[in-house]
């Protein structure tokens, strides 16, 4: 009877708490230590990104950051269905990193999460620091450097390198973030790890496919029309554009 009750509670937790949660953690799901660690990492990340962005980026990057933030914000509002009666949406960390680099990309993602939390209650206010860490640091930094490594291995200036790197990095960033989120929930005593980890990872492996497709489609359009907007742009694509010869 006890085992039956525990099984039923685990199924309830997996269905009613984990699946709607996605990666935007709401208030009350994280313990105080995890919440504080999230805020410390998020504040340090934003401060470092501001300093590096000011030192490395030109004025033309600022309007691109605004456009990128608006696109990711709008794209995150569109849910795509996945099997099991639930849905997912774009996170955009790898896309932001591929277009702006890890520093400016992380700033853009932090702004998006702040607006979502305060205006749309998408993720908790107290959990905002952890959400920025989870999806900004892992999604943007982790996504960008994996994308860059694959792009370098397959051809830095080729669409094969850019597209393959973006697809793998976008998918992996979502899955890794879901693993970290599951451990944070378990350490906070919210959901047992044996419930949180398989539920989060399974669904986000599917959501990651949508993330990869949207990222590749968006980058593919930019590669064909304005390859110079890609961070560390492919030289051969820029040279082949008609305006480049003028």
Descriptive notes:
The protein has 246 residues and is mostly helical. 75% of the residues lie in helices and 3% in strands. It contains 8 helices and 2 strands, in the order αααββααααα. The chain has helices at residues 2-21, 32-56, 61-76, 93-120, 128-154, 159-187, 193-225, 235-240, and strands at 79-82, 86-89. It has a two-stranded antiparallel ribbon with strand order 1-2. A hairpin with a 3-residue loop joins β1 (79-82) and β2. α1 (2-21) runs parallel beside α7 (193-225), α4 (93-120) crosses α7 (193-225) and α6 (159-187) runs antiparallel to α7. The chain is globular, with a radius of gyration of 19 Å. It starts with a helix and ends in a 6-residue tail after the last helix.
Give a brief rundown of this model.
The protein is mainly alpha-helical. It contains 8 helices and 2 strands. The protein is globular.
What are its keywords?
single chain; two-stranded antiparallel sheet; globular; disordered N terminus
Task: Return Rg in Å.
Answer: 19 Å
**What is the general shape?**
globular
Give the N-terminus to C-terminus distance in angstroms.
78 Å
Count of individual helical segments: 8
Report mean pLDDT, rounded to a whole number.
82
Regions with little confidence, pLDDT below 50 for 5+ residues: 1-21
Structural class: mainly alpha
Q: Could you give the order of the helices and strands? A: HHHEEHHHHH
Topology:
Layout: H1 2-21, H2 32-56, H3 61-76, E1 79-82, E2 86-89, H4 93-120, H5 128-154, H6 159-187, H7 193-225, H8 235-240
Antiparallel strand pairs: 1-2
Helix pairs in contact: 1-7, 2-4, 2-5, 3-4, 4-5, 4-6, 4-7, 5-6, 6-7
């Amino acid at each position: 009877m006890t085992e039956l009750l525990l099984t039923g509670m685990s199924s309830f937790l997996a269905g009613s708490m984990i699946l709607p949660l996605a990666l935007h953690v709401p208030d009350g799901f994280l313990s105080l230590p995890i919440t504080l660690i999230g805020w410390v990492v998020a504040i340090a990340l934003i401060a470092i990104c501001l300093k590096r962005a000011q030192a490395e980026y030109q004025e033309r990057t600022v309007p691109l950051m605004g456009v990128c933030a608006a696109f990711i914000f709008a794209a995150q509002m569109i849910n795509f269905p996945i099997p099991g009666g639930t849905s997912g949406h774009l996170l955009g960390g790898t896309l932001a990193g591929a277009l702006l680099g890890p520093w400016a990309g992380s700033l853009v993602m932090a702004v998006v999460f702040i607006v979502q939390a305060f205006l749309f209650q998408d993720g908790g206010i107290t959990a905002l620091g952890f959400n920025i860490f989870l999806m900004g640091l892992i999604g943007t930094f982790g996504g960008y450097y994996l994308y860059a490594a694959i792009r370098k291995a397959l051809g830095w200036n080729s669409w094969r390198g850019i597209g393959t790197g973006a697809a793998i990095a976008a998918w992996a960033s979502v899955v890794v973030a879901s693993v970290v989120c599951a451990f944070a929930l378990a350490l906070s005593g919210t959901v047992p790890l044996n419930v949180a980890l398989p539920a989060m990872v399974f669904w986000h492996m599917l959501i990651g496919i949508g993330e990869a497709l949207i990222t590749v489609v968006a980058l593919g359009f930019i590669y064909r029309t304005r390859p110079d907007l890609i961070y560390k742009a492919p030289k051969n694509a820029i040279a082949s554009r008609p305006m480049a010869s003028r």
